[in-house]
Design brief:
single chain; 449 residues; alpha/beta; Aspartate Aminotransferase, domain 2; Aspartate Aminotransferase, domain 1; 2 domains; 7-stranded mixed beta sheet; 4-stranded antiparallel beta sheet; 14 helices; 13% strand; pyridoxal phosphate; PyrdxlP-dep_Trfase; pyridoxal phosphate binding; aromatic-L-amino-acid decarboxylase activity
Length: 449
């Protein structure tokens, strides 16, 4: 895709639109010296080199990759106008686009026409809004989430002054259903957070089973699909459909288009199955909501000003890569295939051992050390990561995840428990190019042992 061509088209169309309103002279206070601009821009470009190569498949560290060119062009096109999707008079075009993409997301998750939702600046804010509604419905009850859930839930419970209840996990890093039920029996929990795709291991928690348990105790269920939500598109392929199909019956769901949705930061989304929860957002503004009697997006959001450009970027992307198995789903499938294949290679490796089978596109593994102990595994994992990322030639970028002694004992009892836990290597293969690069990646990591 010729990004330069489409960026030029976006600039040309913007200039054509602005010309329709007549010419005017820009204020002198906004003028800058071209030589100074060039110097400052050169400095900026030089400083931006102090980044890891998120665009390249040799980067398999954190959940980072550049946005799709369509998202860049869509975002830039709207950014030049700079609409604010808080109110219809701040961004009528992008507000409509936001409604359309939220409807697409709702359809993907199986929500009906009675849903409510909007884009947010991040998954953290999206989860905050879901827990805000949960507190409003159950003001005297707490929130339960697995100990492997994202730390945003404990943080947001603190923000909301809601009691937080971490729940133990099973041997696959998923919420333990027996532990959950014992907690629900206390009557202290009003909402259960379930994660189909944990950020450390990519483990798919059993949404359908959690939902069954929670409903027996009249608890709400919130789905944190910030990372894994888009894998709904692959349900019924090599991913069991039940957890994903159950999302349609859950009370709320969060997903981050700035992760697997190919968008620039920040673009999150929160959706509620029942639109009546919008009453908890109710507020008034003496100067904002005046151009239309329609619902303004700011009336169903804790955030006020939000970039309309985020909606435009997502809208254009979904016009080209729709939320279907053959559209955006194929992008996710490539990363999933890469993870499954690399796991197979690691199982046959003499120097590496698979920590846990990948559910999605995150692979966790560790060096086979002598002696095979937690302290040795921890040191070796750290050394491999540091050596790889600091290599002057052919660097490779990985990350680590800390695993507890109990987690190791459940998965790898042969490893001597001489420490409280150990770091293991972790690779996120969310770029589809990883599928063609995984042999090279495996060879390079193996060479660092």
């Amino acid at each position: 895709m010729d990004l330069q061509h489409w960026l030029n088209e976006a600039l040309a169309n913007h200039e054509k639109w602005t010309a329709e309103y007549g010419s005017f002279t820009p204020h002198s206070s906004l003028q800058v010296d071209p030589t100074l601009f060039g110097s400052a821009l050169a400095e900026l470009q030089d400083r931006l080199r102090d980044n890891y190569p998120f665009f390249h498949p040799r980067y398999a560290g954190q959940m980072l990759k550049p946005p799709h060119p369509a998202a860049v062009v869509g975002y830039l096109s709207a950014m030049l106008v700079n609409p604010n999707n808080h109110a219809l008079d701040g961004g009528p075009a992008t507000a409509t686009m936001e409604r359309e993409v939220v409807a697409d997301l709702a359809t993907m998750f199986g929500y009906g026409e009675g849903h409510l939702g909007h884009l947010t600046s991040s998954g953290t804010i999206a989860n905050l809004e879901a827990l805000f509604v949960a507190r409003s419905l159950h003001p005297d009850k707490g929130v339960a989430y697995s100990s492997e859930a994202h730390y945003t839930h404990s943080r947001m419970c603190g923000v909301l002054s809601v009691e937080a209840f971490p729940v133990a996990v099973d041997g696959r890093g998923r919420m333990d259903l027996d532990a959950l039920e014992e907690l629900l029996k206390t009557g202290k929990v009003g909402t259960v957070v379930v994660t189909p795709g944990t950020t450390a291991l990519g483990a798919i928690e059993p949404v359908h089973l959690v939902l069954d348990v929670a409903r027996r105790y009249d608890a709400r269920v919130h789905v944190d699909g910030a990372y894994g939500g888009f894998f709904t598109l692959l349900a019924g392929t090599d991913l069991a459909p039940e957890p994903w199909q159950a999302i349609a019956s859950c009370d709320s769901v969060v997903v981050d288009p700035h992760k697997h949705g190919l968008q620039p930061y920040g673009c999150g989304a929160v959706l509620f199955r029942d639109a009546s929860v919008g009453r908890f957002y109710l507020h008034d503004s003496p100067y904002t909501y005046f151009t239309s009697d329609e619902l303004h997006l700011g009336e169903i959001s804790l955030e006020c000003s939000r970039a309309g450009a985020a909606a435009a970027g997502l809208w254009l992307t979904l016009r080209l890569l729709p939320l279907t198995r053959d559209g955006l789903g194929e992008v996710l499938a490539a990363g999933r295939r890469a993870a499954v294949r690399w796991a197979s290679m690691i199982r046959e490796s003499e120097g590496l051992e698979l920590y846990q089978e990948p559910d999605l596109d995150i692979v966790t593994y560790f060096p086979r050390t002598t002696p095979l102990s937690l302290s040795a595994v921890d040191a070796a994992s750290h050394r491999v990561m540091q050596t790889g990322m600091n290599a002057a030639v052919d660097p490779v970028f990985l990350s680590v995840a800390r695993a507890s002694k109990a987690a190791f004992a459940a998965r790898h009892p042969r490893v001597e428990a001489d420490a409280d836990g150990a770091r293991v290597l972790r690779s996120v293969l969310m770029k589809p190019e990883s599928e063609d690069y995984v042999d090279t990646l495996h060879a390079r990591v193996s060479s660092l042992l």
